Amino acid sequence: MSSVHSLLALAAQVDPTDNPVADFSKTPVWLSLVKALLLFVFLLLNTLIVIWFERRVIGRMQQRPGPNRTGPFGLLQTLADGVKLALKEDLTPKNADKFVFILAPAFFGAMAFVSFAIIPLGPMVSMFGHQTPLQLTDLPVAVLLVLAVAGVGAYGVVLAGWSSGSTYPLLGGLRSSAQIISYEIAMGLSLVAVFMFSGSMSTSQIVAAQKDRWFILPCIVSFVIYVITMVGETNRLPFDLAEGEGELTGGFHTEYSSLKFAMFFLAEYVNMFTVSALATTVFLGGWQAPPGIASINDGMFNHGYWGLLWFFLKLWSFMFFFVWLRGALPRTRYDQFMHFGWKFLIPVTIVWVVAVAFIQAANEGWLGDNTLSLGGRSYYTSLLVIIGLLVVGVLAATWIWDGRQAAKAEAREPEVPDEIDPFAGGYPVPPLPGQRLVEPGTAPATRNQEVLRG
């Protein structure tokens, strides 16, 4: 019972309503509109750049130049492709639900932009003569807003697949919805440890809590799990199973063309920026400078627009990670990916969150004497890292053992015979590779054989 009480006390301490958020009291409405416009332009320009960047980097990885004709270094190639895509014929399938067919890409694209509104890009700055945070807005439960918007965005994929009136988009929509929902669970649980350390779900307060130490160190397990889930959440290689060309010919947006397809394409890359920005905010100190640089000249590099530079560098390190994954790893199998999520990632996050809760409670003296604080903060962080690695090791061993048991069970299945009777089941069945038909007269004729012979 004492452990239950400690967890309840910890939950009470993390109540987000007790933590102040960024101060927007001196920000007029027109300045908020300007910041929203600048944020929209920022995402559009970064999308154009990252598409060019992706093609160039993967080209180098595959020993080819990539786009290098349109504009200097091929920088205008993405813009040219966007204009070409917009001028293509806009087709709507005959059996499609036209209203939902048009609504789905607009809905999916809008949800991609909403999440970035709560990301702090920098500290308080002077903008047009007003002191305002480099952030559009903030909430006591801002991180939960990102997860909620990501969940609502799944409706765009489902509606796109269903409204197309075609088989492959429907299968792609079902795949994508199951994948997004599954990996949102692990993603949400991976952030619980961050809430415990920061005592808030506000993005500005989470960044402020990392002034002395980034959360990637004590929450290394949460960070690794989040990085895996953010790739699955955005349907990016090697987890782009909802768009698998080999079996779904494009997935949920197979029937889309022109600007409707461009909306899905744009939303995918904006979602990459959103999950990368959230990872930067909750694990890498947000807009704050690295520890060594932050201590120079009394933290001069943590003031003003310097924060935008550090945030931009951290954000693009994740974008390079996305590109590197696409160029280096093959696509996984859908059932393996779903098993990995449900049987490994979710159990790891649950065990990790419980372990962090107990260690946090013990460090605060709720479970007895302050035995864990004897070694100081460094001992506390090291203990969390060691326990996290042990938890991951034990669950990984369990998952591997489960896979081997399944392989042994599959190996015990009856072998396919070398000879088959093609009419044994009532219908002519061709032999599998390596099989041969039973010679005439060596097996009793079935009623169907007699009918066919008659």
From TrEMBL:
<feature type="transmembrane region" description="Helical">
    <location>
        <begin position="304"/>
        <end position="325"/>
    </location>
</feature>
<keyword id="KW-1278">Translocase</keyword>
<keyword id="KW-1133">Transmembrane helix</keyword>
<feature type="transmembrane region" description="Helical">
    <location>
        <begin position="261"/>
        <end position="284"/>
    </location>
</feature>
<keyword id="KW-0812">Transmembrane</keyword>
<feature type="transmembrane region" description="Helical">
    <location>
        <begin position="99"/>
        <end position="119"/>
    </location>
</feature>
<feature type="transmembrane region" description="Helical">
    <location>
        <begin position="337"/>
        <end position="359"/>
    </location>
</feature>
<keyword id="KW-1003">Cell membrane</keyword>
<comment type="similarity">
    <text>Belongs to the complex I subunit 1 family.</text>
</comment>
<dbReference type="GO" id="GO:0005886">
    <property type="term" value="C:plasma membrane"/>
</dbReference>
<keyword id="KW-0520">NAD</keyword>
<keyword id="KW-0874">Quinone</keyword>
<dbReference type="InterPro" id="IPR001694">
    <property type="entry name" value="NADH_UbQ_OxRdtase_su1/FPO"/>
</dbReference>
<feature type="transmembrane region" description="Helical">
    <location>
        <begin position="379"/>
        <end position="401"/>
    </location>
</feature>
<protein>
    <recommendedName>
        <fullName>NADH-quinone oxidoreductase subunit H</fullName>
        <ecNumber>7.1.1.-</ecNumber>
    </recommendedName>
</protein>
<dbReference type="Pfam" id="PF00146">
    <property type="entry name" value="NADHdh"/>
</dbReference>
<keyword id="KW-0472">Membrane</keyword>
<feature type="transmembrane region" description="Helical">
    <location>
        <begin position="139"/>
        <end position="162"/>
    </location>
</feature>
<dbReference type="GO" id="GO:0009060">
    <property type="term" value="P:aerobic respiration"/>
</dbReference>
<comment type="function">
    <text>NDH-1 shuttles electrons from NADH, via FMN and iron-sulfur (Fe-S) centers, to quinones in the respiratory chain. The immediate electron acceptor for the enzyme in this species is believed to be ubiquinone. Couples the redox reaction to proton translocation (for every two electrons transferred, four hydrogen ions are translocated across the cytoplasmic membrane), and thus conserves the redox energy in a proton gradient. This subunit may bind ubiquinone.</text>
</comment>
<dbReference type="GO" id="GO:0048038">
    <property type="term" value="F:quinone binding"/>
</dbReference>
<dbReference type="GO" id="GO:0003954">
    <property type="term" value="F:NADH dehydrogenase activity"/>
</dbReference>
<feature type="region of interest" description="Disordered">
    <location>
        <begin position="412"/>
        <end position="454"/>
    </location>
</feature>
<feature type="transmembrane region" description="Helical">
    <location>
        <begin position="183"/>
        <end position="202"/>
    </location>
</feature>
<comment type="subunit">
    <text>NDH-1 is composed of 14 different subunits. Subunits NuoA, H, J, K, L, M, N constitute the membrane sector of the complex.</text>
</comment>
<dbReference type="InterPro" id="IPR018086">
    <property type="entry name" value="NADH_UbQ_OxRdtase_su1_CS"/>
</dbReference>
<keyword id="KW-0830">Ubiquinone</keyword>
<dbReference type="GO" id="GO:0016655">
    <property type="term" value="F:oxidoreductase activity, acting on NAD(P)H, quinone or similar compound as acceptor"/>
</dbReference>
<feature type="compositionally biased region" description="Polar residues">
    <location>
        <begin position="445"/>
        <end position="454"/>
    </location>
</feature>
<feature type="transmembrane region" description="Helical">
    <location>
        <begin position="214"/>
        <end position="232"/>
    </location>
</feature>
<keyword id="KW-0560">Oxidoreductase</keyword>
<feature type="transmembrane region" description="Helical">
    <location>
        <begin position="32"/>
        <end position="53"/>
    </location>
</feature>
